[in-house]
């Protein structure tokens, strides 16, 4: 659940740190006081979209941090380990900053992450239902997604979409092969000829480096031999050989150092120099034994280099890039050969379609009972939401194979007794849509694994007895999850386990948002204000107290 939210310089919030409780919490206040601003800030920490306008006037950046309980095990902790993020604590902290230029940065447990990573973590932690969320229910894709979530078939739906893409790609490849058979044949012949030429060259990048080194050595062999002989003469083979002189001097200084230890450092230096000079002498002798003039080999190497250079120029690449060029041609040729095999392409198309059909059939089987259950649950909820006698149905209409399966999903409703079921988009009034949408959101929220559910003024368009029922629905949901609700209805707020008042305040000539946790007396005053407006009387206070005691 959400433990703590820290907000700095966000819209009209300067400094705010609030701790959240369990169960159902209500956020109330005057219109425009900034109730939804807190949820906007939380949405930003969960990876929502943003812009420079969220930064408080004359501030450098907005900073939001949200701390959640981290379940001891489960997919979120596994995901954190996979992403090399700290998963050893009992909490997870999501942080987001936005500077005055609109640039955004994100962190999880103190480690910088991408916005996609922040959003992925947020999806396991909280689910926000906006005040216009019920309008999304008019879209076919939203209805289908809700049903699949209710059927616990999200992964199966993703598999259907992926298998449909694979099938369509196989179908496209077969059709392309049939349409381009002549041009493909010409390209295959050209690639095969070019690959034969490169294969006959027997060239690789390692050989190119060795060829150049050998050519340099052979081309300068005479100079190398002369220089080596001269150095050997000076080191150990002439009358005044350096190695002999060093050994003599080393022996002389060693005797003197036995008399005066102060010459010890000099003895060590001369001894090391004598040893190194001897090693250089032996190494040069071994090198001289291997080094010889070989004009024939030089010609052979130069011819090999010329052949490689000619081929590289022909195909306009560097010599060392020839192997990579061949690999690309080989991959392209394999693809063309595969496309030129009608039987293989047809078999691949049939196999991918069979995988799609299998997955889509399984998805249909999961959707049918879920559709019946969702229809029954929402219909029952409608009876208590001033739509007695109304019905809700989830229709599964067969359609041509598509990325979403074998059927279209359509929510249908009859708001009153005796009326036929019709598309939700065509028959629901604004108030009815709000109530039906709230019922669907509450029912489908139970399918979500997220521990925190947030409702931002989803009770717009209702009131009276229906508002009380909505409050009890949210309170019942709060016994299973942490539920936060921004509301303007006293009936809903009275059902909450705890309540905060959001208000504007003037400070140093600036309008800022303040949040006040309410005790029992504060809740009576706030709910009385919600009931009676500006003039709060003893009667409205008594009514507020009765509402709170009845929850």
Automatic annotation (TrEMBL):
Residues 1-506 form the RecF/RecN/SMC N-terminal domain. SUPFAM superfamilies: P-loop containing nucleoside triphosphate hydrolases. Pfam families: SMC_N (PF02463). Keywords: ATP-binding, DNA damage, DNA repair, Nucleotide-binding. One of its GO terms (molecular function) is ATP binding. GO terms for biological process: DNA recombination; DNA repair; SOS response. InterPro entries: DNA_recomb/repair_RecN (IPR004604), P-loop_NTPase (IPR027417), RecF/RecN/SMC_N (IPR003395). GO terms for cellular component: bacterial nucleoid. It comes from the Bacteria. CDD domains: ABC_RecN. May be involved in recombinational repair of damaged DNA. Belongs to the RecN family. This is DNA repair protein RecN. The gene is recN.
């Amino acid at each position: 659940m959400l433990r703590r939210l820290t907000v700095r310089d966000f819209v009209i919030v300067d400094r705010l740190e609030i701790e959240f409780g369990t169960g159902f919490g209500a956020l109330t206040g005057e219109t425009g006081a900034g109730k939804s601003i807190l949820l906007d800030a939380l949405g930003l920490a969960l990876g929502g979209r943003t812009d420079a306008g969220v930064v408080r006037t004359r501030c450098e950046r907005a900073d939001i941090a949200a701390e959640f309980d981290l379940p001891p095990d489960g997919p979120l902790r596994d995901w954190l380990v996979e992403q090399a993020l700290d998963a050893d604590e009992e909490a997870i902290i999501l942080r987001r900053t936005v500077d005055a230029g609109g640039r955004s940065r994100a962190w999880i447990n103190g480690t910088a992450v991408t916005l996609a990573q922040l959003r992925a973590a947020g999806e396991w932690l909280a689910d926000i239902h906006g005040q216009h969320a019920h309008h999304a229910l008019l879209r076919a894709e939203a209805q289908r997604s809700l049903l699949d979530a209710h059927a616990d078939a999200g992964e199966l739906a993703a598999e259907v979409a992926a298998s449909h893409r694979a099938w369509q790609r196989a179908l496209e490849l077969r059709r392309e092969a049939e349409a381009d058979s002549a041009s493909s044949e010409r390209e295959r012949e050209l690639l095969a000829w070019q690959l034969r030429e490169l294969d006959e060259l027997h060239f690789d990048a390692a050989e190119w480096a060795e060829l150049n080194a050998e050519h340099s050595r052979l081309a300068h062999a005479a100079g190398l031999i002369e220089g080596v002989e001269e150095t050997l003469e000076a080191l150990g083979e002439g009358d005044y050989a350096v190695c002999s002189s060093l050994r003599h001097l080393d022996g002389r200084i060693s005797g003197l150092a036995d008399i005066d230890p102060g010459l010890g450092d000099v003895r060590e230096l001369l001894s090391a120099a004598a040893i190194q000079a001897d090693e250089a002498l032996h190494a040069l002798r071994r090198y001289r034994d291997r080094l010889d003039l070989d004009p024939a080999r030089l010609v052979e190497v130069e011819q090999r280099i010329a052949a490689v250079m000619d081929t590289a120029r022909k195909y306009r690449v560097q010599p060392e890039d020839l192997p990579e060029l061949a690999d690309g041609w080989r991959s392209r040729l394999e693809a063309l050969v595969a496309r030129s095999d009608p039987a293989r392409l047809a078999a691949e198309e049939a196999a991918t379609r069979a995988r799609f059909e299998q997955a889509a059939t399984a998805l249909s089987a999961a959707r049918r009972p879920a559709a019946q259950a969702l229809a029954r649950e929402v219909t029952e909820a409608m009876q208590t939401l001033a739509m007695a006698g109304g019905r809700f149905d989830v229709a599964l209409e067969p359609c041509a194979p598509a990325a979403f399966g074998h059927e279209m999903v359509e929510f249908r409703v009859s708001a009153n007794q005796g009326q036929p079921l019709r598309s939700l988009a065509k028959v629901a009034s604004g108030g009815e849509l709000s109530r039906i949408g709230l019922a669907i959101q509450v029912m489908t929220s139970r399918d979500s694994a997220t521990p925190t559910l947030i409702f931002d003024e989803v009770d717009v368009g209702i009131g009276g007895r229906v508002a009380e029922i909505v409050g009890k629905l949210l309170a019942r949901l709060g016994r299973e999850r942490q539920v936060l609700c921004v509301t303007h209805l006293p009936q809903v707020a009275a059902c909450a386990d705890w309540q905060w008042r959001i208000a504007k305040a003037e400070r140093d000539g600036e309008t800022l948002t303040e949040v006040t946790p309410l005790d029992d007396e504060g809740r009576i005053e706030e709910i009385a204000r919600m009931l009676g407006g500006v003039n709060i009387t003893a009667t409205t206070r008594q009514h507020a107290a009765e509402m709170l005691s009845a929850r």
